[in-house]
From TrEMBL, chain A:
Keywords: ATP-binding, Nucleotide-binding, Transport. The keyword Transport applies. It comes from Muricoccus pecuniae. It comes from the Bacteria. Residues 5-244 form the ABC transporter domain. This is Putative ABC transport system ATP-binding protein. One of its GO terms (cellular component) is plasma membrane. GO terms for molecular function: ATP binding; ATP hydrolysis activity; transmembrane transporter activity.
TrEMBL record, chain B:
It comes from Muricoccus pecuniae. Its main location: membrane. Residues 290-402 form the ABC3 transporter permease C-terminal domain. The keyword Transmembrane applies. It is a multi-pass membrane protein. This is Putative ABC transport system permease protein. The keyword Membrane applies. It is found in: Cell membrane. GO terms for cellular component: plasma membrane. Residues 45-256 form the MacB-like periplasmic core domain. It comes from the Bacteria. The chain crosses the membrane at residues 15-32, 44-66, 284-307, 377-395. Keywords: Cell membrane, Membrane, Transmembrane, Transmembrane helix, Transport.
Amino acid sequence: MEHPVQIAGLTYAYGEGALRREVLRDVELRVAPGEIVILTGPSGSGKTTLLTLAGALRAVQSGSCRVLGRELAGAREGERVALRRRIGFIFQNHNLLGFLTARQNVAMALELDGDTTEAGRLERAGRILAAVGLEEHADKLPAHLSGGQRQRVAVARALVGRPGLILADEPTAALDRASGQEVVHLLRDLARSRGAAILLVTHDPRILDVADRIVAMEDGRVVANAGESAATTGGRAAAADQHGL
Amino acid sequence: MNAIGDLRPALRGALRPPGFLAGLWLAVRLAWRQLRSEKARLASAIAGVMFACVLVFMQLGFRAALFESATTLISAMRADLFLMSPMTLASFRPETIPRARVSQALAVEAVAAAVPVYLAQATFRNPESGRRRTIQLIGFDMEAGVLDLPGLAPIRDALKQPDSFAFDSRSRPEFGPVPRLFAERGPFPAQIGNREMRVVGLVELGSSFGADGNAVLSEVNFRRAVRERPAALVDLAAIRLRPGADPLQAQAALRAVMPPDVAVLTGEELRAHERRYWEEATPIGFIFSFGSLMGLIVGMVIVYQILFSDIAGHLREYATLKAMGYSNTHLAHTVLGSAAILALLGFLPGTLVSSILYGVVADATFLPLAMGVERAGWVFLMIFAMCAAAGLLALRKLRDADPADMF
């Protein structure tokens, strides 16, 4: 099976001419189906830029970046937008729409799929909110939820469209230890049950334990790679199937 | 459900996006949900659109009332064609034509009757305060039935008495309480120019920008009131054709007969001539167009502010939607959808308020102001365009929502 993320020889620079500053240098990275990879490194090491490139949020300058079977080098804007619909994003802040309930926020991720109906979308949103433990809170506005609950809604929103890849940037930064742990473990369990790979950028040492592999970056290069694990998540996925999703 | 089943969606190719209409519906629904969530902001946006709407309605109303009142007299005449001096700019200040032209018109086969009409402005002394104001005198042969005014038929014989005239009850109130005095006393003396005459009845015509009030007289009494006018000169001739005659053919025939000191016009052409004077030779038409434009600009700025701050205040959310795979087009539809909703929500109460104001202003100014479907349609188009322009301007802010900055 093709890896959800296959990056080779990826180089990226901001600015031009004398101001040109390379932030990624000849980066190699592969993420296997169902694998959870944590990217760590000091700020400025290029890990966030790597995440935005893998998320088709930036145009690739040189090198190869294959995500979910699509080569992003030379991809047009429209192709990148289409690919993003198959990726789940989780941000440092929840970035939920304040005027929509939790359920409506989650359903927004499904409105991009023309094969869904309104009733179907709300029903699926309700089921995944139940899976993140927010059954009672599905019809509340984000303002009426705690920080941890909001981030769980964001996790539900990222996962409801059954993405093949989940990209998360410091998802626990705004949370206390307990809620942070809870959110990350939910993310891991739900992603495994769906066979989705996760690429997660974090500074937070408390959540490193969820990773199958930790990739350290420094100065635009991958400096430590705990060795690519085989994609053996099938068994785990079956185990996590008790969520019934 | 097994692991393979779970993986399948992930391996599916690109999603089929919703169809255009379904996508548009979702975008507009999102816009409505966003607008609805902030009641105070929504209310101020609607008030802004309403304000623009009322302003435009009033300006266009005045403009149309002006043009309409300028042609009230001509519209009230039962005639198929008119003879007029080509030098006449507007009927309230006519140039004369020789009376002989009226008789000459009868030479054309299709003409059934040709009636001279006399127009002049004279002063009328307010019977209560004694102050003088300029009034429009309209003189014609009472038997010819050329002017069809409400109230004229029963007093036709009374108007044949020497020095009698009928007062237009829809004249401006500055002429004095003539209708009330007439109702109390019956015919009473009143002064036109320097001549003592009698009000013998009331007709309804309406004031205009050219004339604050009107008095209707017989041909003979007109000459008594306006002594300096030679009998051989008339201001307008109303021509009625035989039943079944083609007005355009008759017009051509009359033109062939008449010397160049007379223009032959249809009623429509004469009204257009009259309107053109007010539109082009006076600043009034421009003033009202300018007023409408100002209303639209103020409304646009208000709507733009609302839409812009909605986007600026939710840049992270918009960027998140872009990261999730929402296209710029979809988000543009959302912003323009907001604009369209505001247009509609402001237009409906704005139209209602304008209808009420039309009534109030018509009572105060005696101008013919009325809400019409056609004007409402035009105003809706203008308000819609105003909101769309505000939306398009606000769209530029959407570019600042860059999903790459989200991480």
